[in-house]
Specification:
Bound molecules: uridine-5'-diphosphate
Radius of gyration: 19 Å
Structural class: alpha/beta
CATH superfamily of the largest domain: NAD(P)-binding Rossmann-like Domain
Strand order of the largest sheet: 3-2-1-4-5-6-11
Number of strands: 14
Number of domains: 2
CATH topology of the largest domain: Rossmann fold
CATH architecture of the largest domain: 3-Layer(aba) Sandwich
Shape: globular
Strand content: 15-25%
Order of helices and strands: EHEEHEHHEHEEHEEEHEEHEEHH
Distance between the termini: 36 Å
């Protein structure tokens, strides 16, 4: 089976490629390398460099490789950025996804897995958040993913595309060889570990007046290998129809708890200073994943925050400059 992975040079996509190859699939990566890294692409995957804004390029890649399924990771994914530049999200994220789906329909490729997000749930009535929760996107980023979910509904109805929407909570951790390297880095766990490595002075805590256990935001961290495994299970499940799953560990940790756990693992004091809230951040996002466990037998290998941060720490120590040569 051949899978096209858009964004396969990025943080989550590159680990999904690694797991797909371990599972015996052949993989083509489509990436414009604007945020991803050539060095993150598995050597057994074919890399096609180009942009999803370019429909002729997508058509060429689909004609050349005729994949059986597409996993779509390539997108802008920063809540804060989307609150400052909504068009990047409501425009590019949506248009690029539509371009890809339109070409897939033309090439009669009928299986699609979407990286969706917990940012669909800005005001959850119940924690942990299940698939039945009311959708109220928290930012243009979340809205852009919701648009793609709706496009999928119609492409399924009209063109017969089978799809899975996987709504991730906070992707974190690393495999032995692939980890998180953004420029600039804006995510909590890599920032905290950069402080531990002496590459930053301190971590800023965005808001300590939320209605949570210690006033800082609570998130549900999920290991990227567990996310990748969910994609592989969802791929097989497409034989039975469309599916939508929330992917979290059902356990929330505050920003302060993440910093404390990292202090314990790294043995570094990791100074933290309080800073204003970041626009678009909900107080608490904790996901319930009972549905995917029940229906697909998904079983996270690294459900503990400690194991997640530990894997990230090992990767950051081995790659202090990320994918750049040390
Ligand atoms: N956060 C923080 N300081 C930082 C980066 C993040 O306090 O330098 C907080 C952020 O406000 C959120 C949590 O850490 O509550 C996780 O943020 P991240 O950007 O890692 O993931 P997101 O929840 O935006 O997907």
């Amino acid at each position: 089976m051949k899978i096209l992975v858009t964004g396969g040079a990025g943080y989550i996509g590159s680990v999904a490629v690694e797991e797909l190859i371990k599972a015996g699939k052949s993989v083509v990566v489509l990436d414009n390398l604007s945020l991803g890294h050539r060095a993150a692409v598995h050597p057994d995957a074919v890399l096609e460099i180009g942009d999803l804004a370019d429909r002729a390029f997508i058509d060429r890649v689909l004609s050349k490789h005729t994949p059986d399924a597409v996993m779509h990771f390539a997108a802008k994914s920063l809540v804060g950025e989307s609150m400052q530049d909504p068009c990047l999200y409501l425009g590019d994220n949506v248009t690029n996804g539509l371009n890809l789906l339109r070409s897939m329909a033309e090439h009669k490729i009928s299986k699609f897995i979407l990286s969706s997000t917990a940012n669909l749930f800005d005001q959850p009535e119940h924690i942990p958040i299940t698939e039945d929760e009311r959708i109220i996107p928290g930012s243009p980023y979340g809205e852009s993913k919701y648009f793609i979910e709706r496009i999928l509904h119609w492409f399924s109805t009209i063109y017969g595309i089978r799809y899975a929407c996987l709504r991730y909570f906070n992707a974190a951790g690393a495999s032995e060889t692939r980890g998180e390297d953004h420029d600039p880095e804006l995510h909590l766990i890599p920032i905290v570990l950069q402080v531990a490595l002496g590459k930053r002075e301190c971590v800023k805590v965005f808001g300590d007046d939320y209605d949570t256990i210690d006033g800082t935001c609570v998130r549900d961290y999920i290991h990227i290998i567990d996310l990748a495994q969910a994609h592989i299970l969802a791929l097989d499940a497409l034989e039975n129809g469309n599916c939508v799953y929330n992917l979290g560990n059902g356990a929330g940790y505050s920003v302060t708890q993440v910093i404390e756990t990292a202090r314990d693992i790294t043995g570094h004091e990791i100074p933290a200073i309080m800073a204003p809230r970041r626009a678009g951040d909900p107080a608490t996002l904790v996901g319930g994943s009972e549905k995917i466990k029940r229906e697909l037998g998904w079983k996270p290998r690294y459900p503990e925050l400690r194991a997640i941060i530990d894997s990230a720490w090992r990767w950051h120590q081995a790659h202090p400059n990320g994918y750049q040569a040390n």
